[in-house]
C-alpha cells in the first residue's frame, strides 16, 4: 500500500532530522543523538532531551509533531483497511450468497477459462441461470465487473 511507503519514508526522514540535528546543533555524540531521537519519536519520555539550544528545541518540536502525524496516518490506514475493506468484502459476499440462494435449476461452470466463458455466453443467450466457480483472483475481479454470479473456489 502507498500509505505504508509514506509512513516508512516519514519515519526515516524524522530519524535523520533528529539524529543529525542533535549532533550538529548540540554536539551530542551519535549514539546519544539517535537514542534521544527514538525516545522523542516514540513519545516515551525517558530522561531529559539532550539539548538546551533553541535549534534543539525546534528539532524536538518537529519530532513530536512528526510522531503524532505518523500515528494518525497509521491509525487512518489501519481503520480504512479493517473497516472499509472488511465491510466491503462482507457485503459483497453477502450479496453473492443471496443471489446464489435464489437460484433454482441452474448450471454450474467450473472455471471461467475460454471454455467457461463461452459456456456462460451461451447460457446468457438462452436465458439460463448459472454460477461460476473460480479460484483465480484476477478472473474473480472480472466476474465481479460483469456481474456474474460466482463462488471463489
The tally of beta strands, per DSSP, is 3
Strand content: 5-15%
Instruction: Assign an overall shape.
Output: rod-shaped
Q: Profile the largest sheet.
A: 3 strands, parallel
Secondary structural class? mainly alpha
Low-pLDDT runs of 5+ residues are none
Average pLDDT number:
87
Helix content: 55-70%
Q: If strands are numbered along the chain, what order do they take across the biggest sheet?
A: 1-2-3
Question: Radius of gyration, Cα only, in angstroms?
Answer: 28 Å
Can you describe what's shown?
- This protein has helices spanning 2-26, 30-41, 54-101, 114-125, 137-145; strands at 107-110, 130-134, 150-152.
- It is mostly helical and 153 residues long.
- A three-stranded parallel sheet has the order 1-2-3, with helices on one face.
- Helix 1 packs antiparallel against helix 3 (54-101).
- The longest helix is centred in the middle third of the chain and has 48 residues, at 54-101.
- The radius of gyration is 28 Å and the shape is rod-shaped.
How would you sum up this structure in a few lines?
The protein is mostly helical. It has helices at residues 2-26, 30-41, 54-101, 114-125, 137-145; strands spanning 107-110, 130-134, 150-152. The radius of gyration is 28 Å and the shape is rod-shaped.
Amino acid at each position: 500500500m502507498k500509505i505504508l511507503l509514506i509512513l516508512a519514508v516519514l519515519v526515516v526522514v524524522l530519524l535523520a532530522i533528529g539524529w543529525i540535528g542533535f549532533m550538529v546543533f548540540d554536539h551530542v555524540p551519535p549514539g546519544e543523538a539517535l537514542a534521544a531521537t527514538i525516545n522523542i519519536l516514540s513519545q516515551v519520555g525517558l530522561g531529559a532531551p539532550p539539548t538546551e539550544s533553541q535549534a534543539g528545541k525546534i528539532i524536538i518540536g518537529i519530532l513530536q509533531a512528526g510522531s503524532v502525524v505518523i500515528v494518525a496516518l497509521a491509525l487512518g490506514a489501519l481503520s480504512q483497511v479493517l473497516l472499509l475493506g472488511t465491510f466491503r468484502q462482507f457485503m459483497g459476499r453477502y450479496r453473492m450468497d443471496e443471489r446464489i440462494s435464489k437460484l433454482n435449476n441452474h448450471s454450474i461452470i467450473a472455471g471461467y477459462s475460454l471454455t467457461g466463458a463461452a459456456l456462460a455466453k451461451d447460457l446468457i443467450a438462452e436465458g439460463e441461470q448459472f454460477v461460476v466457480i473460480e479460484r483465480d483472483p484476477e478472473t474473480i475481479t472480472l466476474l465481479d465487473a460483469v456481474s456474474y454470479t460466482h463462488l471463489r473456489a
